[in-house]
Automatic annotation (TrEMBL):
Keyword Chaperone in annotation: no
Entry keyword set: Methyltransferase, Transferase
Top-rank taxon: Bacteria
Residues in Methyltransferase type domain copies: 42-136
Name of this chain's protein: SAM-dependent methyltransferase
Pfam family, one: Methyltransf_11
PANTHER family: METHYLTRANSFERASE LIKE 7A (PTHR45036:SF1), METHYLTRANSFERASE LIKE 7B (PTHR45036)
InterPro entries: Methyltransf_11, SAM-dependent_MTases_sf, Thiol_S-MT
Taxonomic lineage of the native organism: Bacteria, Bacillati, Actinomycetota, Actinomycetes, Kitasatosporales
UniProt keyword Cell division, yes or no: no
GO biological process: methylation
GO molecular function: S-adenosylmethionine-dependent methyltransferase activity
Amino acid sequence: MARPVSNPLFARIYPRINAVAEAHGSLDHRRELLAGTRGRVVEIGAGTGANFRHYPPEVDQVIAVEPEPRLRAMAERAAADGVAPVEVRGGRAEHLPVEDASADVAVMSLVLCTIADVPSALAEAARVLKPSGELRFYEHVRSPHRRLLRTQRMLAPFWRLFGGGCHLTRDTERAITDAGFTVQDVRRFDFLINGRAHPSAPSIIGTARPPTA
Ligand SMILES: C[S@@+](CC[C@H](N)C(=O)[O-])C[C@H]1O[C@@H](n2cnc3c(N)ncnc32)[C@H](O)[C@@H]1O
């Protein structure tokens, strides 16, 4: 059986990290990620629930899955801020507590960097999506530039330790296509803070269709 996800240090610092990121532009990224979503949404690794208030009124229900108990408690509090009804569930991406083919949208934001078993998590996202559904993703990724990639590789062990297991050098778009999804659109950009790149600056936001059976 997989070990429970427990990251007290990360749970304490992530709300502050997120507040800084949101003040410098990630709020817009969250809005971009969720624009046009509708119906029944499964949000995977919802953290503190930072996305909840950005779901449009066309969303009927959000099932938010979060394994870390302290973050899950924050998500439960944030659930009240959303326009759509949000139900927070314990569980891991690799084994979602959600029925087959029941979701119009699966949302993964800043989470494929951290999940231990990415192929299983994406297979689970595909399982819970209706054939007509879509995956929405917003992730920081491996830099295409040699110099920044070298820095990412150098910082990786420290980053994983203080970032709740976060990997800096994942090629997440590749992982999504390797899992059988068809990427519909993707925007690659550097998320600059005060005009400067940082180790988790290279980012993608996009949508993908689930594999056909
Ligand atoms: C950087 S936080 C992002 C939280 C949130 N998605 C956001 O956009 O702010 C990474 C999240 O992934 C969660 N996580 C870690 N391992 C996971 C797993 N195996 N399945 C689902 N979520 C996981 C963590 O508990 C944490 O909430």
